Amino acid sequence: MRFERLMFEITFQFATAWNEGDFLTLENCLAEQVEYESPLVSPLAPEYPDNRIVGKSNLMAYFRKAFLRKPGIVLDTASIQTTKELREIQLQSHLVGLDKVLLASLILNEYGKLVSLKINYADKY
User: pTM for the complete prediction?
Assistant: First the structure.
């Protein structure tokens, strides 16, 4: 039960930091060699044609760019649902501003830092 509580706290902290544009907290949630995948990467950052970003500094630069371009897109923290399968956490939340569902797969390291974050989107909540 302890891990489930920690898992929810970390995902909630990350979502809240995104919503508030708190880049310091976002950065503190990430491992140095974090891997991020999303179908929205290359349209905003064509230097990543495979929709994959590796490394905390690269990902933070992308997050800043994404946040500044679409500041009204926030996660509905009240709708966050998490489940765990082995080391992988599945997160689902309403993405306000796009009226989509964010579907994320997260992996944490032994220090509670995100080492992998894979994002997809569904059309309806």
Answer: 0.86
Query: Is the confidence at residue 1, as pLDDT, over 70?
Result: no
d(CA 19, CA 112): 20
Query: How big is the CA angle at 81 (ends 20 and 44), to the nearest 5 degrees?
Result: 50
* 78: Cα separation from own chain's centroid: 16
HEC readout, the chain: CHHHHHHHHHHHHHHHHHHHCCHHHHHHCEEEEEEEECCCHHHHCCCCCCCEEECHHHHHHHHHHHHHHCCCCEECHHHCEEEEECCEEEEEEEEECCCEEEEEEEEECCCCCEEEEEEEEECCC
Is the confidence at residue 84, as pLDDT, over 90? Answer: no
What local confidence, expressed as pLDDT, does residue 88 receive?
Answer: 80
